């Protein structure tokens, strides 16, 4: 772990602003994110773009920066001809790039993103869950990624966009003993996981786990996020992490976003009152929205 305050210690003092949708910022910078590795391909092809995207969020006031490792996995790198040793170095690079971008006034913490198994399938499965894979197989998939990221000493592992409780169980098992605290964040529909389990049951998996420093939701509608905050706090007694999408809807047939953004930074105060301590945005939430959010969090 790097020198300085642990993230859990900082959370005890008050809420912190997370960053927003990294891939959206990269797209705004003109990056090509096609392919199964998504934004992680830039770790090899154009790390400077990642550094610039992280800096955009840091300048906006984000105190926690999330790495470009959400869709990074050894098998995907191998299919691009990248060997295991080099791939492990790319996982470490994701942490180093975010760390370098966060230097400046005030403390900045780095969350190493660990996306769900469905993200590696690159077919939208993270929004359905129920992969038909046993928990032990999911543990085997996630553990090498987690070990590679943990070796780079991030401040926290973001076990994020988790669609069902089976995968949450696998991720927590895979992270056990890695030496880095984690947050657990589900993607939800109403008051259920994407796979249909009650959120109270999903949050309960983290309640007695000391490695989990925050629990909550991401990559969901802002209205769903708001309802989940108080429930997560009540079930677990832990700080809550919440970072919803803009509220726009992805049209899979037309390959475009539809509708308008309903992401309202002013709601952060309600979420803080209900127990949120890590607050940011996910898809379609950019530096402008994060700046407005950070201003409200102080």
Automatic annotation (TrEMBL):
<dbReference type="GO" id="GO:0008168">
    <property type="term" value="F:methyltransferase activity"/>
</dbReference>
<keyword id="KW-0479">Metal-binding</keyword>
<dbReference type="Pfam" id="PF02574">
    <property type="entry name" value="S-methyl_trans"/>
</dbReference>
<feature type="binding site">
    <location>
        <position position="282"/>
    </location>
    <ligand>
        <name>Zn(2+)</name>
    </ligand>
</feature>
<dbReference type="InterPro" id="IPR017226">
    <property type="entry name" value="BHMT-like"/>
</dbReference>
<dbReference type="InterPro" id="IPR003726">
    <property type="entry name" value="HCY_dom"/>
</dbReference>
<dbReference type="InterPro" id="IPR051486">
    <property type="entry name" value="Hcy_S-methyltransferase"/>
</dbReference>
<keyword id="KW-0862">Zinc</keyword>
<keyword id="KW-0808">Transferase</keyword>
<keyword id="KW-0489">Methyltransferase</keyword>
<dbReference type="GO" id="GO:0032259">
    <property type="term" value="P:methylation"/>
</dbReference>
<feature type="binding site">
    <location>
        <position position="283"/>
    </location>
    <ligand>
        <name>Zn(2+)</name>
    </ligand>
</feature>
<feature type="domain" description="Hcy-binding">
    <location>
        <begin position="4"/>
        <end position="297"/>
    </location>
</feature>
<protein>
    <submittedName>
        <fullName>Homocysteine S-methyltransferase</fullName>
        <ecNumber>2.1.1.10</ecNumber>
    </submittedName>
</protein>
<dbReference type="InterPro" id="IPR036589">
    <property type="entry name" value="HCY_dom_sf"/>
</dbReference>
<feature type="binding site">
    <location>
        <position position="219"/>
    </location>
    <ligand>
        <name>Zn(2+)</name>
    </ligand>
</feature>
